[in-house]
Amino acid sequence: MSIKQRIAKQWAKHIVKTTKKWANNPIKTQQKVLMDLVKTAKNTAFGKDHDFESINNYDDFKSRVPVNDYEGLRLYVDRMVAGEEDVLWQGKPLYFSKTSGTTSGVKYIPISKESMPTHIKTAQNALFHYIHNSGDASFVDGKLIFLQGSPILSKTNGIATGRLSGIVAHYVPSYLQRSRMPSWQTNCIEDWEQKVDAIVDETVHEDMRLISGIPPWVKMYFERLKEKSGKSISSLFPNFSLFVYGGVNYEPYRNALEELIGKKVDSVELYPASEGFIAFQDQLDEKGMLLQLNSGIFYEFIEADKIHEASSSRISLADVEIGVNYAIILNTSAGLWGYNIGDTVEFVSLNPYRIIVSGRIKHFISAFGEHVIGKEVEHAMKNTAKKYQAHVSEFTVAPQVTPEEGLPHHEWWVAFDKPPKDLATFAATLDLEMRNQNTYYDDLISGGVLRPLVLRALPADAFEHYMKSIGKLGGQNKTPRLTNDRKIADTLNKLYQIK
Predict the structure, then answer these.
(1) Which domain does 430 fall in, by range?
(2) Is the pLDDT of residue 101 over 80?
C-alpha cells in the first residue's frame, strides 16, 4: 500500500467520525444552522425587510420568510448583480453561478465565501466515505477525470461568473492536481464534441482509476474511447474502479455503461446544485444519499402535490416522513431564503436522514389528472429494460392529448443502444409497470380515458442530436425525462420524421 493510500485511509476514518457526530444529532444540528444563518444575515437588506432581529425559532422564521423561487428573490439578486453589498448575505458574493431557466431566463445564483468551501468539502467527504466503507483507496495512485464545464469565468461587476462545475475546477486540491485530467487547455474547450475528442486523446493511454460526470456524457466519452481504441473501457483502464455521478438517475444508463466498461465498478452518487451541495451516497449498500445537515443549509419541505396551494404547509426535518414526495426548500449561507430549487425528494431513512431525488416540480405529466413523476417513469423503464435485456440510451415521455386517431395516450420516445427483440411486448410491459407505479394512470387506462402508451423507438444517439439541435450538448445539461407539453416530442418528430 502506498503512502498516499495510507494517508487517505487515515483521513477517511476521521471524516466519517466527524460526519456521525452531526448525523446522530440531526435536529439540534439543523436548529443551530438556522439560527447561525439568521444571525449572520440580520443586518442585510433582506434580513431587515423580514425582521430577522426578532427571529428566535423556526416558527418565527416561517412567519417572516415566504417560500420563494428565483423570481421571488429577483429584486434582491438584481441589486447584488449591480454590485450592491449586504443584500441577501453579508458583503458581496464570491461568485455567481450562471444558469439558464425556463421562466427566468439567465439566473445568477450567488456563492459566498462561506458557502464555497462546503461545495468542495462535501465532494471530498463523499470520496473519503467511499474509501472508509470499501477499504479501497487505490484510485489515489492513478489518474482521475472530472467531465465538467469550462473553467473560464467572466466578470459581473467585478464578481467572477460561470457554471458551477467551471467554478469548482478552480478548487481542485493540490494533492490531486498531478492526477487530475483533462488538462486545463482541454477543459477550456467550449464545443462539447471537440472537447470529448480531446479528452479521449489525452486519456486513452493513461491509468484512469476514477471517472466522474453526468451519466449520458460519460457514456459519450466511453463510446468515443471504444471507437478510437477498439477496446472495452476495462481493457483500456484495468485499474478503473470508481464512477462518481450526479445530475440524473444512473439506473437507466447502468446496463449500457457496464457493457461499455466490460465489468462492474463501484459507483457513488452526488447531489450538488448551484444553490448548495445537498447530499451524497455515504454507504455502498444502503439506498439513498445522506442529507448534508452541517453545510450551511437549513432545509424545509412541502408535499410536492401541494406546492402550488396558498395554504401549503412547510415543515422542517423534524416532521418529515418516509415515502412522501417533497419539494425541497433551501435557506443557505449564500443568502437564498425559502428557496424552492424545483427538485422533489423522498426520504428512504430517518436515522440517519437519507434521500433520493424523485424528480422536478416542473417535470411531470398531468394532462389527464394522473400526475406522473420522474421516479415512476424511471422505475418502470428500469424494470422493463432489465426483463427484456434491453439497453436504453435515453428517453422522454410526453402526453398526446389530440391524436390523429384513437384515444389520448402517453408517448414514450426511447433511444436504444440495444433494443428488445419485440417492441410491442416491451411497450405492453412498460405500460403495465406504469400502471403498477401510478394508480391514477391505471384508473385512466382501465376507465377507457387513455389507451396504453405508444413507444417511439429512436437511434442510440438521438438525444445527443436533439441536445445539439437546441444548443445544449454536453456540460451539465440534461434532457427532461418527462414534460407536460410536447416541445421535446415535436422536435424529435421533426428530426426523425416519425408519423
Answers:
(1) 364-496
(2) no
Same domain? 193 vs 141 = yes
Burial zone of 134 (CB within 10 Å; 0-12 exposed, 13-18 middle, 19+ buried) = middle
Report the chain's terminal Cα–Cα distance, integer Å: 60
Q: In terms of domains, do 370 and 349 share one?
A: no
Is residue 432 packed enough to be buried (19+ CB in 10 Å), middle (13-18) or exposed (0-12)?
middle
416: amino acid identity, one letter: F
- Residue 345: pLDDT over 80: yes
Q: Are residues 19 and 68 in the same domain?
A: yes
Residue with cell 474547450: 189
| 326 backbone dihedrals φ, ψ, rounded to 5° | -110, 140
328, 360, 392: which is the final residue of a domain? 360
| pLDDT 10s digits, 409-428 | 999 999 999 999 999 999 99
Please tell me what DSSP assigns to residue 92.
-
Asked if 306 and 312 count as a contact pair (C-beta separation under 8 A), the reply is yes
Q: How many CB atoms lie within 10 A of CB 473?
A: 19
Domain harbouring 345, CATH code: 3.40.50
- Domain endpoint, select from 360, 390, 414: 360
344 and 397 in a single domain? The answer is: no
| Number of continuous H segments (helices) and E segments (strands) in the chain | 18, 20
Return the residue matching grid coordinates 459507483: 267
Query: pTM of the prediction?
Result: 0.83
Digit-coded pLDDT (tens) for 209-245: 999 998 888 988 999 999 999 999 999 999 999 999 9
- 40 and 108 inside one domain: yes
392-414 pLDDT per residue, tens: 989 999 999 888 899 999 999 99
> 345 pairs with which residues across the strands?
357
Q: Identify the three-state secondary structure at position 298.
A: strand
Residue type present at position 260: L
Average pLDDT over residues 199-209: 95
Q: How many domains does the chain have?
A: 2
| CA-wise closest residue to 87 among 8, 143, 157, 22 | 157
DSSP readout, 210-278? Answer: EEES-HHHHHHHHHHHHHHHSS-HHHH-TT--EEEEESS-SHHHHHHHHHHHTS--EEEEEEEETTEEE
Burial string for 298-331 (b: 16+ CB within 10 Å, else e) reads: bbbbbbbbebeeeeeebbbbeebeeebbbbbbbb
